[in-house]
Design goal:
Elements (H helix, E strand, L loop, with lengths): L2 H12 L3 H35 L8 E6 L18 E3 L9 E3 L3 H8 L6 E5 L6 E3 L9 E2 L10 E4 L10 E5 L3 H4 L4 H4 L3 E7 L5 E12 L9 E4 L1 H11 L5 H4 L4 E5 L6 H13 L2 E4 L1 H44 L1 H9 L4 H39 L16 H28 L2 H6 L2
Parallel strand pairs: 6-11, 8-10
Antiparallel strand pairs: 1-12, 1-13, 2-3, 4-12, 5-9, 7-10, 8-11, 9-10
Helix pairs in contact: 1-11, 2-9, 2-11, 2-12, 9-12, 11-12
């Protein structure tokens, strides 16, 4: 019997007992459906994180702070005053501080092996933002590292190479400031107020070049300025500050080679630590979040695997019953010259076909259900996160799931297939 004939025979034999086969397929369907949806959930969330990574920082940049001198003893009491401390712009508890960096630190960083460029991050706090003589709104000032992009609904990213004062306005401020919509905001001039060390307020005018969509943690009321606007706000903020106190920074951005391997980046972090600095990448900042998501998906996938293992017993039972019911047929096939290997292949193909049907149906309905759920959530609960597809599907992942289920079905079918292959033709023909 040729391979094509074996395949055709396996497909037709599968539905000899329709009820038993359908129940087995449904058991496989549950596992494949769950695997598909949970895989899509992980793909969707991680894809969204990857797409918004550049809104936090460029992939070839380390955010560097000066490591505080530690006694090595944990201290849960009051923190000793440090005149060199400065408010931290890194995520952490309210009131977190780091040791201030100076131009000397920037020179030190530039001399470390693997560092291509260093730029101080100028932290600026603003009082409010205003359009014309309209209502004033509290605002915070973000930062834009070279190579970084932001998730825009309209307009463009502020240009760090431009001498013009530019900013990207958060979507949350568009209507409150008095704009009809995001398109109306683009190209308009707004005023940003900052207070200097002498308690005098300065108004800095800048052009809105884009409107930022809410991100993973929302944009709130944080504007994204270009370097020229950051410098202007920084200068206004430092009026009245002693010259030797102006060049103090909470952190700096350190560029390394875009082609650097994970090990090379790790070695660079070690060299920075040896010099008294701490460097973190975007991947470090998001690593915990992605680990949690992957852990949740892994747990859900474990339940799907359990369902598939339970379904595999159904495959064993289905094929054992099929072997028993077709004992005389197996004896006849072997008496007519069909080898044991061909008999084994025939029953194995039946198992694989059952696995294929269950997994294909489960994956197909999983894609439909996942897409519908994701679409519904994006219009309701997740409406504040434009661009997030909660459940997204990767063709390679779907194909992998189907192949894994087919492999499980094959393994489950080996025992009954082996029993059929070992059948004695004479005894089988006598079977009543």
């Amino acid at each position: 019997m040729r391979t094509l004939d074996l395949l055709s025979s396996a497909v037709s034999n599968t539905f000899r007992s329709k009820t038993r086969t359908i129940l087995t397929i449904l058991a496989i369907f549950v596992g494949a459906f769950t695997l598909t949806v949970t895989s899509g959930l992980g793909t969707g969330i991680n894809r969204y994180i990857d797409e918004t990574v550049t809104s936090i920082g460029a992939s070839d940049v380390l955010t560097v702070t000066k490591a505080p001198v530690s006694s090595g003893v944990a201290n849960s009491g009051p923190t000793e005053y440090n005149p060199d401390a400065i408010a931290s712009t890194q995520p952490g508890p309210p009131g977190s501080t780091v040791v201030a960096m100076t131009p000397a630190d920037l020179d030190t960083l530039s001399g470390i092996e693997g560092v291509e460029r260093v730029q101080a991050t100028k932290a600026v706090s603003a009082d409010y933002i205003q359009l014309g003589d309209g209502t004033r709104y509290l605002v915070t000032v973000g930062s834009l590292v070279a190579g970084q992009t932001v998730n825009l609904s309209v307009g463009s990213t502020p240009d760090n190479s431009s001498s013009g004062l530019q900013l990207a306005l958060p979507e949350d401020l568009v209507v409150p400031l008095g704009f009809a919509d995001a398109d109306a905001a683009t190209g308009a001039t707004v005023k940003i107020a900052v207070t200097d060390a002498q308690r005098s307020q300065h108004l800095v005018e800048a052009t809105v070049v884009g409107v930022v969509q809410p991100g993973l943690a929302g944009t709130g009321s944080s504007i994204v300025p270009n370097q020229a606007l950051t410098d202007a706000l920084f200068a206004a903020k430092n009026v009245g500050v002693a010259a030797d106190q102006q060049e103090r920074f909470a952190q700096a951005s350190v560029w390394f080679s875009p082609d650097a391997t994970t090990q090379q980046v790790s070695d660079l972090k070690t060299r920075l630590a040896d010099a008294g600095y701490k460097g973190t990448t975007v991947a470090d900042q998001l690593g915990t979040f992605k680990t949690v998501i992957d852990g949740i998906v892994l747990v859900l996938n474990a339940f799907a695997i359990i369902a598939l293992l339970a379904a595999s017993f159904g495959i064993v039972n289905t094929l054992f019953m099929s072997v028993q019911e077709r004992t005389r047929e197996i004896g006849l096939m072997k008496a007519m010259g069909m080898g044991s290997g061909r008999v084994f292949t025939l029953f194995s193909l039946e198992a694989i076909f059952i696995g294929f049907l269950g997994s294909a149906i489960g994956a197909g309905i999983g894609i439909i259900a996942g897409t519908a759920i994701s679409s519904a959530l994006s219009r309701s609960v997740l409406a504040g996160l434009p661009g997030l597809t909660l459940v997204a599907f990767n063709p390679v992942s779907i194909a992998t799931i189907i192949l894994i289920v087919m492999a499980i079905a094959f393994l489950a079918g080996t025992l009954p297939a082996a029993r059929a292959a070992r059948a004695d033709p004479v005894e089988s023909l006598r079977y009543e």
